[in-house]
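**Backbone shape codes:**
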Amino acid sequence: MTLACLPMYDWPEARAETLATWQALRDGARARGAHLPDTLTDPGPDGVMALWRSPALVFGQTCWGPLSLGLIEELLPLAQPDYGAFEGGRGPFYRSALVSRGGQACVVPEHPGAALPADLADDLREGLCLAFNSCDSLSGYLALKQDLGADPAALAIRHLETGSHRASVVAVAEGRADLAAIDCRSWDLARRFEPCARGLAVVGWTAERLGLPFVTHRATAPETAKALRETLHEMGCHDTPQHTEDQGRDG
């Protein structure tokens, strides 16, 4: 039995879009000889980490944060989705929007670097509450850490770990937090489907980084991985960094 999951942007309101992506990939890879499950697997109570670590995972999507913290040993990146349709995205690259209940609105920079509020580090030290989905999230935490040059949770007197980008948006809107870094595609979903997001402003952007790669477990047969990769490229995806293919096996 093989498993497939697309959990990263699978908001209930966008479920039809998630399924359409899977069906197009599944049918294209099957035409190339791959044996894939008919349906996506719900992460369930064990969560996405259990699926990502399962040798039965033939297709999924994860974040470069968990990959950089060790998951690359088990998962093989296949291709990078295109983020060009979303404000803050450019080809395989994405940014996170720093959202707040008020403040000076910030447009997407024309350069690949970050555009953060000038006094952000001081504001964190003085009591501004940062919400983030998880400490291993590139878009929600690690990107801000890299761009600030300091650990935001260590700087902040107050911080709130929410478990998801959507929950971080709600926390800021409800006043339980003051700021959150939300990846640009999740921010697009929030503006479409989360009414409270309409009252928030984008006050900064993190630097461009590679978006969330499509992956398979390293136990997947090479011919299946090849069929998936070819189909993803046909669907408009981009190459992943070349060194990631052998990194897990070479240690």
